[in-house]
């Protein structure tokens, strides 16, 4: 639509205003005598007018004189004013065409600005699409990185907690073993207050010095103690054992310390006073 309009504008600008071909109303011109000088035309006209008026071929009445004056006025106006009127109309037409061309130039300039604005918007839209794609790719990479970071963080936290549990289990096992050994030593030592046990242990020791068998009294006492302790623990399996107040307080302190170390800010459930064996 814009191209067709511009083509019409150029065609209108290149067109030359052509004047219409006006047929001459002069009789002498029709007869080919328009090139005769007026010095010859006037005498010939007077010479021909005398017999025409005398013979009353043409009667000069008032009406005829008015017609003659009107015809003379029309002829003079046509002869002398046609160029001025034509020039005036041509100038007016040129001014109208120039004004129309100026308006069309302004319209074309406005349309070009709109086209340029739309082209800029299309280019901007393409850039925004590219930026959006790059942003989506960056977000996907960030999501993957954050997921891996979270996985590693959780793994480290779990490993740290497992290490803590393993260390606590080893510590508890060592304490239990130390407690069992201490209790076993105390129990075996208490049994040495019996005279029969002392005599038997002394006899085995003397025999061992003499090259006999190794003493079995002490090993037997320790074995009997551990056997009885294991049987007692097995009989208590599945039942609840009450913890001392000191043990419960110690466990609660350890739970609070673990929660603080791991950044847990919620409420920590207290340790129950009884546990299942």
What is this structure, in a nutshell?
This is ATP synthase subunit b. F-type ATPases have 2 components, CF(1) - the catalytic core - and CF(0) - the membrane proton channel. CF(1) and CF(0) have multiple subunits. This protein has 277 residues and is an all-alpha fold.
Fold and architecture overview:
The structure is a single chain. This protein has helices at about 1-15, 25-30, 40-55, 60-190, 195-210, 215-235, 245-260; strands at about 240, 275. Mean pLDDT is about 75; it is low at about 15-20. It contains 7 helices and 2 strands, in the order H-H-H-H-H-H-E-H-E. The protein is rod-shaped. It has a two-stranded antiparallel sheet. By secondary structure, it is an all-alpha fold. InterPro entries: ATP_synth_Bsub_B/MI25, ATP_synth_F0_suB.
**Structural class given helices, strands, pairing?**
mainly alpha
Order of helices and strands: HHHHHHEHE
Largest sheet, if any? 2 strands, antiparallel
**Number of strand segments:** 2
Strand order of the largest sheet: 1-2
Outline type: rod-shaped
| Integer-rounded radius of gyration | 67 Å
State the helicity in percent bands: over 70%
Q: Point out poorly predicted stretches.
A: 15-20
N- to C-terminal separation?
Answer: 94 Å
| Number of helices in the DSSP assignment | 7
Mean pLDDT: 76
Q: How large is the share of residues in beta strands? A: under 5%
Protein name: ATP synthase subunit b
Subcellular location: Mitochondrion; Mitochondrion inner membrane
Organism: Aureococcus anophagefferens
Keywords: CF(0), Hydrogen ion transport, Ion transport, Membrane, Mitochondrion, Mitochondrion inner membrane, Transport
